Amino acid sequence: MARMDLSEFASEFGLLLERKHLGRDPEEYDGLLPKELSHRKLHDIEEKFLVIILQQLFETTTDSSLLWALGKAPKGLVFEWYLNKVLPNIAELPKDAMWQTLIAIENFADEGITHKEAKVVRQYVQPLKTRPKYKELAMRILNTIEHS
Questions:
Q1: Do 68 and 115 belong together in one domain?
Q2: Which of 73, 98, 123 is the last residue of a domain?
Q3: d(Cα 7, Cα 134) in Å, to the nearest integer?
Q4: What span, in angstroms and rounded, lies between the C-alpha atoms of 128 and 134?
Q5: Fewer CB near the last or first residue (10 Å), C or N of the chain?
Q6: pLDDT tens digits, the chain, 148 residues: what are they?
Q7: Do 7 and 65 touch, CB atoms closer than 8 A?
Q8: For residue 113, what are the CA distances in angstroms to 18, 21, 95, 133, 148?
């Protein structure tokens, strides 16, 4: 069996998380997932376990593909981790990881967040408005949390 690289791993398992979270038909993922995973259904405990593995891998590698995959998981499983582990270090992350963090935060904010969560997001996203690459995305996030 060929060895899978980290981005392949993240891509496949991110798609599985997305399919479960969004309740999509497995047929939509034909060609995107290997045959052995294309019709695989994740049970809740497997989903939680997978999220923990992806989080631990990210904490040791800071590979942005892992953040992409984690952004596909249900907010209830990952948002607290983003707030406590990722956002406080966002300024030190590699550029791609910073971008994937902001995309995930924007998606979670679109689902609605509490006042307390918004305060944390604001604290770490506000300074990114001064960075040209992240300004537009940071502004969208801040606008969303101000109106939620």
A1: no
A2: 73
A3: 23
A4: 6
A5: N
A6: 455 688 888 988 898 888 876 766 667 767 777 777 777 788 899 999 999 999 999 999 999 999 999 999 999 999 999 999 999 999 999 999 999 999 999 999 999 999 999 999 999 999 999 999 999 999 999 999 988 6
A7: yes
A8: 20, 18, 25, 25, 7
State how many domains the chain has.
Answer: 2
Q: Tell me the two tokens of residue 146.
A: 């101000």
Please tell me whether residues 99 and 146 are part of one structural domain. yes
pTM for the model stands at 0.88
Question: CA 132, 137, 139, 145 torsion: positive or negative?
Answer: negative
1 and 69 housed in the same domain:
yes
Domain of residue 96 covers 75-148
Residues in the chain: 148
Residues 62 and 88 in one domain: no
Residue 143 phi/psi, 5-degree rounding, is -65, -45
On whether the CB atoms of residues 114 and 126 are closer than 8 A, the answer is no
**Same-domain pairing of 66 and 82:** no
Q: Which of 16, 61, 62, 73 is nearest to 42 (CA)?
A: 16
